[in-house]
Amino acid sequence: ETLSSMKWMISIEGQVVISPHPNFVAGLAAAFASFYTFNFEYQEEASCTLEFIQ
Questions:
Q1: Whose CA is closest to 35, among 21, 17, 23, 14?
Q2: Neighbours of 2 (CB within 10 A)
Q3: What was the pLDDT predicted at 50?
Q4: Are 26 and 34 contacting, i.e. CB atoms less than 8 angstroms apart?
Q5: Closest CA to 36 of 51, 20, 25, 46
Q6: Looking at the whole model, is its pTM more than 0.90?
Q7: Mean pLDDT by 10-residue block, N- to C-terminus, for the chain (54 residues)?
Q8: Which of 26, 17, 20 has the alpha carbon at shortest distance from 6?
Q9: Cα separations (Å) of 20 from 13, 25, 38?
Q10: From which domain of life does this come (predicted)?
Q11: What is the dihedral of CA 49, 54, 20, 4, to 10 degrees?
Q12: Residue 44: what pLDDT?
């Protein structure tokens, strides 16, 4: 069985900062933009993959 989602949202410290949205590409772009905007660091285990995608 394949996992799927119908909407995405971004939360920071338990607060939703971007409300649910159905577009995956926009969600991915918003996730990367939030790392850049808020100066977050990628988790060490995923940093190489995320930097490649970026």
A1: 17
A2: 3
A3: 85
A4: no
A5: 51
A6: no
A7: 80 87 85 86 89 87
A8: 20
A9: 17, 13, 20
A10: Eukaryota
A11: -40
A12: 92
- Can you tell me the distance from the alpha carbon of 11 to that of 50, in angstroms, rounded to the nearest whole number? 19
User: What would the two tokens of residue 52 be?
Assistant: 């490649």
Tokens coding 40: 């977050």
Instruction: Give the model's pLDDT for residue 19.
Output: 86
For residues 31 and 48, what is the distance between their CA atoms, to the nearest angstrom?
Answer: 16
Residues 34 and 39: their CA atoms lie apart, in Å, by 8
Domain range annotation of the chain: 1-41
DSSP state of 23: -
pLDDT at 1: 65
